[in-house]
Structure formats: structure tokens, C-alpha cells
Amino acid sequence: MPGVADRPRQRVVRSAARVVRARGKVAFVVFDQWCRGAITVPVPCSVLQQVLHLEHRELAGARASAVINAGALLDHEVQPRHWRLAPPVPVEQTDAAAAVR
Question: How sure is the predictor about 99, in pLDDT bands with cuts at 50, 70 and 90?
Fold first, then answer.
């Protein structure tokens, strides 16, 4: 069928997300369920600030989740939406993780 191979694959899932950095108007976010969190996806800082209720200075390192297209081939096909702020990680867990390294 013509054009079938050209369409992006759709696999909609909720994925854990982490803001790697926020500079200017764009934040770069990794998603556990897309490329195993190895590739960043640009997201407007204004979107994250509005839906997560965070200040710009609080974005870097923020953990959240979003519904994404995990079958995306390119970053702009990920299309994150329906954001939720993740609960903070307890100090005991971060200390235990550091001790293992």
C-alpha cells in the first residue's frame, strides 16, 4: 500500500519523564518509554511551567510523567501530553542508589 511505511507508528503509553535541562524557552526532556531515555525531546518551558506548576528555575531535574507516542521515530513525533508531576523521591532511596554506585 502506498504511504503506509511513511506513517509514524502509534503506541500510546504513559511514561516517566525527567527534565534534563531548561534553557530559555525550551526544556529538554527524556522519557523512559521512548529510546530508553537516551534521547531528549524539546518541550516549551511555558507548557511545563503551566501544567506542572513549577517556576522556570525548578524545571531542570523535575520528574513527571506524560502520555507519549512510544512508537515515534523522531523527537517531534513523541508528542507528550497529559503531564503529571511525579511524587518526590524519598531521601532513603536516593541515598541507597548512591551507595550502590
Answer: low
